[in-house]
Specification:
The chain has about 280 residues and is α/β, with parallel strands linked by helices. It has a single domain (about 10-260), classed as Alpha-Beta Barrel (TIM Barrel), CATH 3.20.20.100. It contains 12 helices and 10 strands. It has helices at about 25-40, 50-60, 80-95, 115-125, 140-145, 165-175, 190-195, 195-205, 210-220, 230-240, 250-255, 270-275; strands at about 5, 10-15, 15-20, 40-45, 70-75, 100-105, 130-135, 155-160, 180-185, 225. The strands form 2 sheets. An 8-stranded parallel beta sheet has the order 3-4-5-6-7-8-9-10. Strands 1-2 form a two-stranded antiparallel ribbon. Helix 1 (about 25-40) links the parallel strand 3 and strand 4 (about 40-45). The chain is globular. The mean pLDDT is about 95.
């Protein structure tokens, strides 16, 4: 698997497996185990997903060395403070049942992000986590965080797909040396994507699925992608994107599809924080 080198020298796989909404032990174990068999080593979870324990179980049951994996999890809003982040990290680590976490992220840019980040910096210096980063931080939130941060985030994970390409944010991340990572990288297969003549023509030309074309676009744009898929065949298909390449003309055609369309909460929408904060925690 191709990797990207983070700003602290850690290598991160360019393609991973997302486990959002794999909310039963059976579905999560089946999905993660199938992903491991297919060759995925980056597994992305979060405290809010309530499946960290099953992700850790699948990793342990794989029989593969722990160091082969790159495990990401995230801190939820109710623990977004210095002390809360410390507690949240320990609980995530305990649920995962692993010795360390590869990447620990602040899940959304709300609450006391500066305090939480200070706790992550301490955990990083202690060697408890190999890299720290943020999720859903747009430039204003990053600018605010960097006023007090001593360690630059290694990753910014955000919704990104052909309908939402965030070119200005990605240029800013490139200037800072922060690796972009896409959640919902295939845009939940929105009808504008499944019905796109551009993507359809490219899929036919290269003998690939629409999702494979989109994931290959992410790879060539330098964006880590973490597609979620149910079913072993789809999981295998999503990782099978290394045997073809999109031309610059084809990449440009996909870039022209951008229209700033969010399929989920927009971090810059003032109503998003309230909606997210109202979600039950129970973890």
């Amino acid at each position: 698997m191709k990797t990207f080198v983070l700003n602290n020298g850690v290598e991160m796989p360019a393609l991973g497996y997302g486990v959002f909404k794999l909310d039963t032990q059976e579905s999560c174990l089946a999905g993660v185990s199938a992903a491991i068999r297919a060759g995925y080593r980056l597994i992305d979870t979060a405290a809010m997903y309530r499946n960290e324990a099953w992700v850790g179980q699948a990793v342990r049951q794989s029989g593969l060395p722990r160091e082969e994996f790159f495990i990401t999890t995230k801190l939820w809003l109710h623990q977004m403070s210095y002390e809360g982040a410390k507690v949240g990290f320990e609980r995530s680590l305990e649920r995962l049942g692993l010795e360390y976490i590869d990447l620990f992220l602040l899940h959304w840019p709300y609450g006391d992000a500066a305090g939480a980040w200070r706790a992550l910096e301490e955990l990083y210096r202690q060697g408890r986590v190999r890299a720290i980063g943020v999720c859903n931080f747009t430039r204003p939130y990053l600018d605010k965080l960097l006023q007090t941060a001593e360690i630059l985030p290694a990753v910014d994970q955000m919704e990104c797909h052909p309908l939402l390409q965030l070119p200005e944010l990605r240029r800013y991340l490139a200037q800072k040396g922060i690796q972009p990572e896409a959640w919902s990288p295939v845009g939940r297969m929105h009808p504008e994507l499944t019905g796109s003549p551009v993507l359809g023509a490219l899929a036919q030309k290269h003998g690939k699925s629409l999702a494979q074309i989109i994931l290959r676009w992410h790879l060539q744009e330098g964006i880590v992608a973490i597609p979620k898929a149910a079913g072993e065949e789809k999981i295998r298909q999503n990782i099978d994107i290394l045997d073809f390449e999109l031309s610059e003309e084809e990449m440009a055609a996909i870039r022209a599809m951008d229209r700033g369309f969010h399929t989920n909460d927009d971090p810059d929408d003032p109503t998003s924080e309230g909606r997210l904060a109202s979600r039950p925690t129970g973890f």
